[in-house]
From TrEMBL:
Keywords: Oxidoreductase. It comes from the Bacteria. This is Putative oxidoreductase. The keyword Oxidoreductase applies. SUPFAM superfamilies: Bacterial luciferase-like. It holds the Pfam family Bac_luciferase. InterPro entries: F420-G6PD/mer, Luciferase-like_dom, Luciferase-like_sf. Residues 13-99, 118-244 form the Luciferase-like domain. GO terms for molecular function: oxidoreductase activity, acting on paired donors, with incorporation or reduction of molecular oxygen.
Length: 271
C-alpha cells in the first residue's frame, strides 16, 4: 500500500499552511502539497511550510510553464531557500500549443539546475509517456483508481522507451469530510469540468469529476474510501476540500486522514 500526503490550495491563509504542515509532519504524512494558482504563490506557500517543518517532503502541484519559466522557477526556489532534499517540484504544461515540448524542455532544464525531485503533471497518454521519459515522478489529478492503472501503463511505456525506471506516482484525491464541505467539492468538480483538457480527461474515463473524489460524513469512513487509490499508487495525496478553509476544518481532516489511523473500540480514531 502506498504512502499518504496532504494538500491545500496555496491561496489559503499562511497560518493555515503553517498549522497544517506542522500537523502533517507530526502525524506521519510523507508529503505536504500546495496548489499554485493565479491568486496563490505555491513556492511562497512551501516556504511557509518549510519554516515550521524539518522532515516532511514539500510539493507544489503544479507550476504552469506558460506562467513560470524554468529560469524563474530556479531563481524563486533559490531566493526562498527551499530545502532541495525535501522539494517535490511539480510542473505542468499550462495552456496553448507546444505543451509536450514545453514540458520536456522545462523538466530537463530543472533537473539540470536543481537537485530536487521534478514532478510532471499528466492527464492524457502522450503527457504520461513523456513523464515516464523525463520526470522523477508524475502527478495525476481527478482520476479513478482504475484509470491510475491505465495511466501507469502509459508512464511505463515512456520509461521503457527512455530506458529509465518507472517514476514515482502521486495523485491528488479531493476529499471532503462532513456535509458542510460537499457544496464546495461540487463547485470544484464543476469548475474543472469546464476546462477543455479536463473535459476530455473525464470523457476518456467515462465518469464525471465527482466520481474521482471522496466525500464522507464521518472520519472513520475515510480509510476504506481511500483504500482503492492507495493500493495502486506510490502516494495518495489527500487534497483537502473544506467549507471555509479555516484552520480548525483543515486540522480535522488532517487528523481524520492521518496515516495509520483506525477506529478504536470506543468510536474514536486511534493510532
Amino acid at each position: 500500500m502506498g504512502a499518504r500526503g496532504f494538500g491545500l490550495a496555496a491561496a489559503v491563509s499562511p497560518d493555515v499552511i503553517r498549522g497544517a504542515a506542522s500537523a502533517c509532519e507530526a502525524l506521519g504524512y510523507r508529503t505536504f502539497w500546495v496548489n499554485d494558482t493565479p491568486d496563490g504563490d505555491g513556492l511562497a506557500a512551501l516556504a511557509a511550510a518549510a519554516a515550521v517543518t524539518s522532515r516532511i517532503a514539500l510539493g507544489v502541484g503544479v507550476l504552469p510553464l506558460t506562467r513560470w519559466t524554468p529560469e524563474r522557477i530556479v531563481e524563486r526556489v533559490r531566493a526562498l531557500d527551499l530545502p532541495l532534499d525535501r522539494l517535490r517540484l511539480g510542473i505542468g504544461s499550462g495552456t496553448g500549443p507546444g505543451a509536450l515540448e514545453r514540458v520536456r524542455s522545462g523538466a530537463l532544464a530543472l533537473r539540470a539546475a536543481l537537485a530536487c525531485e521534478v514532478v510532471v503533471a499528466a492527464l492524457g497518454p502522450r503527457m504520461c509517456r513523456l513523464a515516464g521519459e523525463v520526470a522523477d515522478a508524475v502527478l495525476f489529478n481527478w482520476l479513478t483508481p482504475d484509470h491510475v492503472q491505465r495511466s501507469t501503463q502509459w508512464v511505463a511505456e515512456g520509461a521503457r522507451r527512455a530506458d529509465r525506471p518507472l517514476p514515482r506516482r502521486y495523485a491528488y484525491v479531493r476529499v471532503a469530510l462532513g456535509s458542510a464541505a460537499v457544496p464546495r467539492l461540487q463547485e470544484e468538480a464543476a469548475r474543472y469540468e469546464r476546462f477543455p483538457g479536463y473535459r476530455e480527461h473525464f470523457a476518456r474515463m467515462g465518469v464525471p469529476a465527482l466520481a474521482t473524489a471522496v466525500a464522507v460524513e464521518r472520519a472513520e469512513e475515510l480509510a476504506a474510501a481511500l483504500a482503492p487509490w492507495e493500493t495502486v499508487l506510490d502516494e495518495t495525496v489527500v487534497r483537502a476540500i473544506t467549507a471555509g478553509d479555516r484552520l480548525d476544518e483543515v486540522l480535522a481532516l488532517v487528523e481524520a486522514a492521518a496515516p495509520g489511523r483506525q477506529l478504536g473500540s470506543g468510536g474514536q480514531l486511534t493510532s
